[in-house]
Write a structure and sequence with these properties.
about 220 residues; alpha+beta; 2 domains; three-stranded antiparallel sheet
Length: about 220
């Protein structure tokens, strides 16, 4: 049987061992800091965001470089093979021009990507031997139409390719429950009001009334 003094010594030793083990465990498992953002797959704490004025549904629309006409505020990607200093993202200014290294200001608005490519090749030929250039439209800001009222996805849409009012309604997710399908109004920037009967059109009537949209049109679907 242990004496009272020996019991006290044993209790002190056990308390010291328990305290030491708690310190070791605390040092080996540090809690995660909730304020530290988790890195993405590229190792960055914040994903790169490209500014856009169009909805996600419109990303990837086909742009014909022989037909599409560049306008102010459009965003271009200009690539010059093996010339990184001459390549990059260019925004078309309100005056319709872009600024290029070595060349300076160059008119872009009113040209197709194919025509702008030809002009860039001619201008850069003074500095680069047989330059290979690609011009891409990565964001359309200069041409758009709006649709409002009784559709499922109202909003502004880029007018990248030729589009009719029938196609625009379908792109906007079709009609809501109480939409007036018989009298859709197209408002033009010059104040012109055009009318389209969707119900009659889908029955095969008045095919010539499927209005081709123009830049700045607003489609009003009454409810």
């Amino acid at each position: 049987m242990l004496r009272p003094v020996e019991v006290c010594r044993v209790s002190s030793v056990l308390s010291a061992l328990i305290l030491a083990s708690g310190l070791v465990l605390g040092q080996g498992a540090k809690p995660a800091n909730p304020s530290t953002p988790a890195p993405n797959v590229a190792g960055s704490t914040e994903a790169v965001k490209v500014p856009s004025t169009v909805s996600a549904d419109t990303v990837g629309l086909p742009i014909d470089p022989k037909i599409y006409v560049i306008g102010p505020e459009d965003i271009l990607r200009i690539s010059v093979w093996r010339e990184n200093d001459l390549s990059g993202i260019k925004g078309v200014r309100p005056d319709g021009k872009i600024t290029m290294p070595l060349i300076g200001d160059l008119q872009a608005s009113g040209l197709t990507p194919e025509r702008l490519t030809a002009q860039l090749k001619q201008a850069l030929s003074e500095f680069v031997k047989q330059p290979e250039i690609t011009v891409e439209i990565i964001q359309v800001n200069s041409k758009n139409y709006s649709i409002t009222g009784g559709v499922n996805r109202p909003g502004r849409y880029p007018l990248v390719i030729t589009k009719t009012v029938f196609e625009a309604v379908n792109d906007a997710g079709g009609f809501r429950e109480f939409a007036n399908e018989k009298d859709i109004v197209i408002l033009r920037k010059d104040g012109t009001r055009l009318h389209f009967n969707y119900r009659e059109f889908v029955k095969g009537k008045h095919a010539d009334k499927n209005i081709v949209l123009e830049n700045g049109d607003t489609i009003l679907v009454k409810e």
